[in-house]
Design a protein that fits this description.
Number of domains: 2
Largest sheet: 7 strands, mixed
CATH superfamily of the largest domain: Type I PLP-dependent aspartate aminotransferase-like (Major domain)
Helix content: 25-40%
Strand content: 5-15%
CATH architecture of the largest domain: 3-Layer(aba) Sandwich
Strand order of the largest sheet: 1-9-8-5-4-2-3
Radius of gyration: 21 Å
Length: about 400
């Protein structure tokens, strides 16, 4: 199964969906005086806001929508620059481009997240924000990035699509910047197939995000509110069906995280003596959601050989997660004229040499996520037993001993 939430789906989700279907209220709105209406979306927003420790949350139809809505609601648009890592999912960049702003690519360091020193070097008078992407389940160096953002008077936005449930120094990822975005697709911690959430502590940002996601309406509308809408919005609303599934899944979050963390620790302990094997540096190990165990090998050739023997690939081959493998981005294949006019938002291979070198000698072993697109086709999952973990560790050690000298 792709992700831990998807792997644990059972009759509870089935019954939650059936309950919504029986109610007849499939969209997020319904009458307060009808007990059949479960207000699943509103309940989910309230639960995630409480979990994240923020004042506000808006449920949307994808993590991409969450990022784009945040960017637009923060006033980011044509002429602005947003710093983003060269190792991320393409949605981080497409969301920036479809505001009319330009993504400015920065290196990642041994956290596999933004290198704060390179971020600061790339700030110009056009820089409006840093999009801190928490890749592969673990957080960025948010202390350093917050310091940079504060000193330069720019915004910090968190793309926590791959790290829902994670934390930094006791605070949930997504809650530390001006706004944060989560994803609930098949490969994420919990899932409803697709879906997303944005969170913020700012009442003003919340109102703008809500209006943008719901045809310009203010929260939490009753009826159509003709004449009261602050600006023209779109429709990125989550359905009651999706939220019902997520409300069940959210109740499993603590179990998912504790299981993944235990399994990851066991897998790491079983392979850490393999020759030439290193591990990703975690800024806050306790806050890692443990969906991936990222290992580094001495050089690109040995990493490629080990990956090949295991039926997987290095992170350098993870397609739309690597800045110079996003072919539609590189060729400026976009549908909006203002996005087509954005200059200098692409980079050729070699533009980020530190990122290229690191990804070429790195492999991610799936712990809770099985995603061939990012190279986690080999590993374990949330249901793995100790014997499963030992078998995977044995195969990894054998491949390393065969190819690393």
């Amino acid at each position: 199964m792709p992700g831990p939430g998807n792997d644990l789906i059972d009759e509870l989700e089935v019954e939650a969906v059936a309950r919504v279907l029986r109610s007849g209220y499939l969209g997020r709105y319904g009458p307060d005086d009808d007990p059949a209406f479960g207000a699943e979306v509103l309940t989910l927003e309230q639960r995630i806001a409480e979990l994240a420790g923020v004042g506000h949350a808006v449920a949307v139809n994808s993590g991409t929508s969450a990022i784009w809505t945040l960017l637009c609601s923060l006033g980011i648009g044509p002429g602005d620059e947003v710093i983003v890592p060269g190792f991320t999912f393409v949605a981080s960049m497409s969301a920036i481009i479809y505001t009319g702003a330009s993504p400015v690519l920065a290196e990642v360091d041994d956290t596999f997240n933004l290198d704060p020193r390179d971020v600061e070097a790339r700030i110009t008078d056009k820089t409006k924000a840093i999009l801190a992407v928490h890749m592969l389940g673990a957080g960025c160096d948010l202390d350093a990035l917050c310091d940079i953002a504060n000193r330069h008077g720019i915004m910090l936005i968190e793309d926590a699509a791959q790290a829902f449930g994670g934390s930094h120094r006791g605070r949930r990822l997504g809650s530390i910047g001006i706004g944060g975005a989560y994803s609930f697709n098949l490969y994420k911690t919990i899932t409803c197939g697709d879906g997303g959430m944005l969170v913020t502590n700012s009442p003003d940002v919340y109102e703008r995000c809500f209006a943008l996601h719901d045809q310009g309406h203010l929260p939490l509308r009753r009826g159509v509110e003709v004449g009261n809408r602050p600006f023209l919005g779109l429709n990125f609303r989550m359905t009651e069906l999706s939220a019902a599934v997520l409300n069940v899944q959210l109740s499993r979050l603590d179990h998912i995280l504790s299981t993944l963390r235990s399994n990851k620790a066991a897998l790491r302990a079983a392979i850490e003596t393999a020759p030439g094997t290193g591990f990703r540096r975690l800024v806050d190990p306790a806050g890692d959601i443990a969906t991936h165990l990222v290992v580094t090998l001495p050089d690109a050739d040995s990493a490629a050989a080990v990956a090949g023997e295991l039926g997987t690939k290095t992170l350098a081959k993870s397609g739309w997660h690597v800045y110079h493998q996003m072919e539609h981005l590189l060729q400026r294949r976009v549908v909006s004229a203002f996005a087509q006019s954005v200059a200098d938002y692409v980079a050729v291979p070699g533009a980020l040499p530190a990122t290229d070198a690191l990804l070429a000698r790195s492999i991610t072993l799936g712990v809770g996520v099985v995603d061939p697109g990012i190279g986690s086709a080999f590993g374990i999952n949330v249901r793995s037993t100790p014997s499963d973990i030992e078998r995977v560790a044995d195969r990894f050690r054998a491949a390393v001993e065969h190819h690393v000298h």
